[in-house]
Specification:
Number of strands of chain C: 4
CATH architecture of one domain in chain C: Orthogonal Bundle
Oligomer: heterotrimer
Strand order of the largest sheet of chain B: 1-2
Largest sheet of chain C: 2 strands, antiparallel
Strand order of the largest sheet of chain C: 1-4
Largest sheet of chain B: 2 strands, antiparallel
Shape of chain B: globular
Strand content of chain C: under 5%
Order of helices and strands of chain B: HHEEHHHHEHEHHHHHHHH
CATH class of one domain in chain C: Mainly Alpha
CATH class of chain B: Mainly Alpha
Number of helices of chain B: 15
Distance between the termini of chain B: 44 Å
Number of domains of chain B: 1
Shape of chain C: globular
Strand content of chain B: 5-15%
CATH architecture of chain B: Orthogonal Bundle
Radius of gyration of chain B: 22 Å
Distance between the termini of chain C: 24 Å
Number of helices of chain C: 18
């Protein structure tokens, strides 16, 4: 289903509601992400951020409303289909291929981009896929992992795994990058490194949606912020405006569930 | 028509009871320890062989030769007297007759020991390891146990007689007010069913009404929190493994008059036990019991000649077909919790 | 040439080929130089290497592959009876039928993963076995099994020539396949299978399979539709199992349902784990070792044991014989089970992991701690 949208709106969450039995996890959610912008979604615990993310990524079907990406409805599509359309995702706990080397980790998504969702590619060995190997090495250089390319990915620190995961997403040149609490559980040092990396990516004009908790991260990176509380949007706008919004302060400090 | 259906229903009860008991133990282990135990069928078999061993012990005989009495062809008569009878007289005779139920007394401590030994000795090391490795190591264990049984008892089945008083059939039809001898059901099978219900009831009561049981149920729901509360859940789970082993073993003991046990019994019941647990729902105790009875009865109906005429061979494959359908249509099983091990 | 196969792979392939072709000579000091036994090495080597393509690469543990082995046997036998004594149509027929069967079972079973998948394959294997012994006896001849007889139609053969006298046996375009011919015929397929496994493992396709094993969730979110990947691996391994079953019938022209018992599936799992799951050579090694010891140990009896222990004083020797006898002869499976448990507990990577560890240990001994750090930092992922 193709819903024509405004030219520079990459993602449109259109009037989405999500109910679990009697529980209204999300209500009246309508937000639009503009191309090239970093759009942060924040809110206290239990506000519905994860639910919203799962609706966007296709894991949960909305009770009503739709998620439209670049004119295509995402609802009901499988994860690999959504990725092939141009959406890449970073998980709260970095999801990488722990048994493969760092280089292989980054080469794999490149194959998905080049060959599609399924291809019986048994006729060459991996070593001879020179283009993809070079692309992967280039990407590793970008994120600062090039000297660890032969290392077992499972042996990396959490911060490095996050970098690797970002490299895996970026090599696919996605239209939209979804980040689910990218600095969760990280030390101050790793958080800052991650922010620097994300700023670098931002400078290239990639559209990003970040679900975040950490205010420091959000205010360093976001162009626009949507605030969720109790499954609803309570505020939306530029960072300075949101920062000063009394409703937002109350939601975080006043114990809204 | 009703009689035929009712009879088939009754016929499925004893097998269904065995399935339910085995599945109960398996689910207890999976729900508490999160371990997939491919050796569980072997526990059922070990129980059965406790009965075999007990009877063998009881029927060790002294053979004396009485020169006074002669057999029909003129040789001195051998008088065989079971040792037990020599020691205990009539009581001994009674013991031999009732060897199967009495061997429960032997089976309980043996199975408890085996269960705890298995858990502490081997399974404990595999909690954090992937399910595939748990399957492999318990599968290997099942083979070893089967082979040990074969080495000790030989490759042939060992029929175990039921106590003489309990042979023959109960006239259930008469109880229900029908004509006599229309619906009869062998006494031992009825006893097995009642026994199974008793054991199942005891396990559920234990889990529901004791503190120990409450802690175990809490641990099944959320192991981490229980640990954080300072409760040593590991020891309790070990005991649960022992209890699961006892349940399986007892089911095996009482089943021996119905199916002569041999060393392949473990493997045969292994496949079935997993099928039952999958149909019932892998974390659900009531589901395991219900599925056990359901599949036993289904198998009985599938063995009816009328049914087999329509679908030849259906009795051989009915329970696997049901498992396949359930796994595809409703993978959490009839009563399982949503999200438990969906692909 | 260099983009088709890398130098390292080519070396391995050539090395493997040489060893296999020289097996009759290499096996002599082990007392294993019988065509029959060596053929079994090849047959179960193919089975295990094929199985490893599924289990070793994707991590999906199937307990149902004996069904494909059995189907291959039956299909080959029917070809021998209906078409020709020539082994080629039999093999083609067997691989095709096993492939279709694997496609059907894989399509259903792969809708689930992990333990549910394993139980599904177990259920299908048990169903197949039960049916083979009961309802499908017209096709399988139940317990007795199928044999080639002089009354068989053998349509293709009749078109071209008269039936030779005597009991029919499998042939290869007229050449006999008994004795060493049979071994080399099977060895050819072993080498091809090894090449195929090597090709798959080192290709992008193989890397995708490994990715599925490592983190299927991530594969999905990275744009891969994982189902066709696993199904392809499943069908390939099923076809190779069918090939092995067919080759067994070529060696020993009797097809019986015993092949399909799920414990036969267990045996191939054992071989793969023992040798080293996920490695190329491991499953082959595991198959050779298990079949070799099966042959040797299962023929041990008490007198052989007594001979073996003859250096011990009498009383001790009798005790030793009595204890050992439980583990050999009929008790061979007990030994096998114990070895399997020990391997899974202590050395889950099998013999290949053991070899790697020993190699690493020797390397460290030689070069001291500098080498250790170097090895740890640049450990290539395998």
């Amino acid at each position: 289903m193709h819903i024509p949208g405004k030219d520079n709106i990459v993602l449109h969450v259109a009037d989405v509601h999500k109910n679990f039995g009697g529980l209204h996890a999300l209500a009246d959610i309508d937000l639009q992400v503009e191309e090239g912008k970093t759009h942060a979604i924040i809110g206290p615990n239990g506000a519905g951020k994860s639910t919203l993310l799962n609706v966007i990524i296709g894991r949960l079907a909305p009770s009503s409303g739709a998620v439209v990406f670049d004119g295509t409805v995402l609802t009901g599509k499988k994860p690999h289909e959504i990725n092939q359309l141009g959406v890449a995702r970073v998980f709260q706990t970095p999801e990488i291929f722990a048994d493969l080397s760092v280089l292989q980790n980054v080469m794999t998504p490149a194959f998905a981009r080049r060959d599609g969702a399924f291809r019986i590619n048994m006729f060459r060995s991996v070593e001879n896929e020179i283009e993809i190997r070079e692309e992967a090495e280039h990407m590793l250089n970008d994120v600062g992992l090039i000297d660890r390319r032969g290392v077992h990915a499972g042996a990396l620190s959490r911060g490095d795994k996050r970098r690797l995961e970002l490299a895996m997403c970026l090599i696919q040149k996605p239209r939209l990058l979804l980040l689910d609490e990218p600095t969760a559980g990280m030390s101050r040092h790793d958080t800052n490194t991650t922010i620097d990396l994300l700023k670098k990516i931002k400078a290239r004009g990639m559209t990003k949606v970040i679900i975040e908790h950490d205010m420091h991260v959000v205010f360093s990176l976001a162009d626009k912020i949507t605030v969720l509380a109790g499954g609803r949007i309570i505020a939306e706008g530029l960072p300075e405006a949101v920062r000063g919004d009394p409703r937002v302060q109350e939601a975080y400090l006043g114990g809204a569930h | 028509m009703f009689e035929v259906i009712f009879l088939q229903f009754l016929n499925g009860l004893d097998k269904g009871s065995a399935y339910a008991l085995i599945a109960l133990g398996l689910t207890l282990v999976f729900g508490t320890l999160g371990v997939v135990n491919f050796a569980h069928g072997a526990l059922f078999m070990l129980g059965a062989f406790c009965a075999v061993a007990f009877r063998r012990f009881l029927t060790m005989e002294t053979v004396t030769v009485d020169p006074e009495k002669l057999s029909p062809w003129g040789a001195p008569l051998e008088i065989r007297e079971p040792l037990v009878q020599a020691w205990f007289g009539e009581f001994g005779g009674w013991l031999v007759n009732y060897s199967v139920p009495v061997s429960l007394l032997l089976a309980v401590p043996v199975m408890l020991f085996v269960g705890i030994a298995m858990e502490r000795g081997l399974i404990k090391h595999f909690y954090k390891r992937p399910h595939a490795e748990q399957i492999l190591v318990t599968f290997g264990l099942a083979i070893v146990i089967g082979e040990l049984v074969k080495a000790s008892f030989g490759p042939n089945p060992h029929p175990q007689p039921m106590p003489t008083d309990w042979r023959g059939a109960a006239d259930i039809g008469a109880w229900l007010g029908m004509q006599a001898n229309i619906i009869t059901y062998p006494w031992w099978r009825l006893i097995y069913f009642l026994f199974a219900m008793g054991v199942i009831g005891a396990v559920f009561a234990f889990l529901q009404f004791t503190t120990f049981g409450m802690v175990v149920r809490a641990g099944m729901a959320d192991r981490e929190t229980v640990g954080l509360l300072g409760i040593n859940i590991d020891r309790r789970f070990t005991i649960m493994f022992g209890i699961a082993a006892i349940v399986a073993g007892m089911a095996g003991v009482m089943y021996t008059p119905l199916l002569p046990p041999n060393y392949t019994l473990g493997m045969e019941f292994l496949v079935i036990s997993f099928v039952v647990v999958v149909v019932g729902g892998m974390g659900s105790l009531p589901g395991a019991v219900a599925a056990g009875f359901l599949l036993g009865i289904l198998q009985s109906f599938a063995s009816m000649t009328q049914v087999k005429a329509f679908f030849p061979g259906i009795d051989q494959i009915i329970i696997y077909l049901v498992a396949v359908v359930i796994l595809l249509v409703r993978p959490r099983g009839l009563m399982g919790r949503r999200g438990v091990m969906e692909a | 040439m260099s983009s088709f196969i890398s130098r390292k792979d080519l070396t391995l392939l050539v090395g493997f080929t040489v060893i296999v072709l020289l097996l009759p000579i290499l096996a002599t000091p082990f007392g294993a130089a019988y065509p029959d036994l060596l053929q079994r090495f090849m047959i179960f080597g193919i089975f295990a290497v094929g199985f490893n393509i599924l289990f070793g690469l994707t991590g999906y543990l199937s307990f149902g592959h004996a069904a494909f082995f059995g189907v291959g046997s039956y299909a080959a036998m029917w070809s021998f009876k209906l078409l020709s004594t020539n082994a080629v149509p039999a093999l083609i027929f067997a691989v095709a039928i096993a492939g279709v069967f694997a496609l059907a079972i894989g399509f259903v079973s792969l809708r689930r993963s992990g333990i549910y998948f394993s139980i599904l394959t177990l259920a299908f294997a048990q169903m197949s076995y039960n049916l083979a012994y009961s309802v499908l006896t017209p096709i399988t001849n139940g317990e007795t099994g199928l044999r080639m007889t002089t009354q068989d139609p053998r349509v293709l053969d009749r078109l071209f020539f008269d039936a030779p006298p005597g009991t029919p046996v499998p042939t290869l375009f007229g050449w006999s396949l008994s004795g060493w011919n049979g071994f080399y015929f099977a060895a050819l397929f072993m080498i091809v299978t090894f090449f195929l496994a090597m090709r798959i493992t080192n290709s992008p396709f193989g890397m995708m399979l490994k990715g599925i094993k490592s983190n299927q969730n991530r594969m999905n979110y990275t744009g891969f539709n994982t189902r066709p990947y696993t199904l392809t691996a499943f069908v390939i391994s099923g076809m190779l199992a069918g090939l092995a079953g067919a080759l067994l019938v070529v060696t020993d022209p009797l097809a019986g349902a015993e092949r399909m018992r799920w414990t036969a599936s267990g045996e191939v799992v054992l071989m793969t784990i023992l040798g080293g799951v996920g490695t190329l050579v491991g499953p082959f090694l595991g198959a050779v070792i298990i079949k070799y010891f099966e042959n040797i140990f299962s023929s041990f009896n008490n007198s052989v044991l007594a001979n073996f222990y003859s250096f011990l004083p009498d009383g001790v020797r009798d005790v030793a014989v009595m204890i050992s006898s439980k583990f050999v002869g009929e008790g061979w499976h007990l030994s096998l089970g114990l070895i399997f448990v020990l391997i899974v507990v202590f050395l889950p990577g099998g013999i290949m992991e053991g070899a790697r560890r020993i190699g690493g240990w020797i390397g460290r001994m030689r070069n001291g701690s500098k080498s250790e750090r170097h090895v740890a930092a640049t450990q290539p992922a395998e």
